[in-house]
Specification:
alpha/beta, Rossmann fold, Helicase, Ruva Protein, domain 3, five-stranded parallel sheet, 14 helices, 44% helix
Length: 305
């Protein structure tokens, strides 16, 4: 298990250079059956990472370029009337896949963004009163440009909450950028990657995540983090129960990546930022620092310490 996950991470890191932590977090998000939001400037390798994940984990892949004139039907599909049979048939949209790359999701209007809400939460699509299940696993990797850029629409809180993690790739280090400039095209390299983990093995790993043990003390630590986000007065609104469940799921996946069948506080602390930063808004004039820093400082690992 450790070897195959290490090989998967190493292969993706060969095309997404200099970002080992982000690669591991992306894999943890997939293993935890979540969805991933990558927020960064254009040209940072977001799409390359999505392609590399799909190839490495043998996932059926579709890409949708979100634009301001898109409609929900462009994502979930539409019913077409067949004059020969005199019946409506569903023409499936790109959402019917295992890994959906929602590229520049915040360039679409809120109405179109909302077309993904049911798909991301329920793993199904309802169209003309009929409900159709999506493939398993169903993993959305969405990229988002900074909201300061022209032509963007901020994602509503309900949409953000559907993403288990949000990460950023950032500019590469100088030596890594030198490799990028001197080497082959990384996008093309990602398309040529061989599968490392086939679908049955991936499903087995995702099932193992749910069996990673979390002690009562560990659950107590997570619960105190949730309570602090709600009661400290540092944030406009605290973390929801869904966020708490997601935090524990992500910590279990991170523990599995570390070849452990139990969660330790460091697992929670590692995934805390990607899981909560997009869910918490600081109160104006409140404490400085990120939400993660504030929570880690305010909540000791051991109660009463």
């Amino acid at each position: 298990m450790k070897d195959v996950l290490a090989r998967a991470a190493a292969q993706i890191s060969n095309v997404v250079l200099g970002k080992p932590d982000q690669v591991r977090l992306s894999i943890a998000c997939l293993l935890a059956n979540g969805h991933l939001l990558i927020e960064d400037l254009p040209g940072m390798g977001k799409t390359t990472l999505a392609h590399a994940l799909a190839r490495t984990f043998s996932l059926d892949f579709n890409r949708v370029q979100f634009t301001s004139d898109m409609l929900p039907a462009d994502i979930i599909g539409v019913s077409i009337f067949d004059p020969d049979t005199r019946k409506f048939t569903l023409r499936e949209g790109p959402v019917f896949c295992q890994l959906l790359l929602a590229d520049e999701i915040n360039r679409a209007t809120p109405k179109t963004q909302g077309a993904l809400l049911e798909a991301m939460e329920e793993r199904q699509v309802t169209l003309d009163g009929a409900t159709r299940a999506l493939p398993e696993p169903f993993f959305v990797v969405a990229t988002q440009n900074p909201v300061t850029q022209a032509g963007t629409f901020p994602l509503p809180e309900s949409q953000l909450d559907r993403f288990l993690m949000r990460i950023s790739l950032g500019y590469p280090a100088a030596d890594v950028e030198r490799q990028l400039l001197a080497g082959e095209d990384r996008r093309q390299a990602s398309l040529a990657l061989p599968p490392v983990i086939e679908l049955p093995a991936l499903q087995k790993l995702m099932a193992l995540v749910t069996r990673v043990r979390a002690s009562n003390d560990l659950v107590d630590y997570v619960q105190r983090i949730l309570a602090c986000s709600r009661d400290s007065g540092l944030f406009v609104a605290g973390l929801s129960p869904r966020a708490g469940l997601g935090l524990l799921r992500a910590a279990r996946a991170w523990a599995l990546l570390g070849s452990r069948d139990y969660v330790i506080p460091e697992d929670v602390q590692t995934v805390l930022g990607p899981v909560v930063e997009h869910r918490l808004s600081p109160v104006s004039g409140g404490a400085t620092g990120t939400a993660t820093q504030q929570l880690l400082e305010a909540v000791p690992v051991v109660r009463g310490s």
